[in-house]
């Protein structure tokens, strides 16, 4: 799931994964961090979901995926779009 906070010059995107999905450490990787594993790790919220917030320039399109422990890649079913293997977010 994606949560957005739009500002004048940028958009804060909060990537959220449900409680109980993917064991171990999970990070979001994508065009915005040169696909670097661990650059944006998820942290657990009080309700058991996990999230990470990334600040991105407005009016852009970014491919991304989630990477969990054990080289397990997965997409966000609530992303703005899909492009081949990647989820897409529009700022």
TrEMBL record:
InterPro entries documented for this protein: Glyco_hydro_13_N, Ig-like_fold, Ig_E-set
Pfam families the UniProt entry points to: CBM_48 (PF02922)
Domain Glycoside hydrolase family 13 N-terminal: 24-69
Name the record gives this protein: Isoamylase early set domain-containing protein
């Amino acid at each position: 799931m994606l949560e957005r906070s739009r500002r004048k010059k940028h958009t804060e995107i909060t990537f959220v994964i449900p409680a109980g999905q993917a064991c171990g450490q999970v990070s979001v990787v994508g065009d915005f961090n040169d696909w670097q594993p661990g650059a944006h790790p998820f942290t657990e919220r009080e309700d058991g979901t996990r999230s990470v917030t990334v600040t991105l320039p407005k009016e852009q399109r970014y491919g991304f995926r989630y990477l969990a422990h054990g080289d397990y890649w997965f997409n966000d079913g609530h992303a703005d779009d899909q492009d081949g293997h990647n989820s897409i977010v529009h700022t």
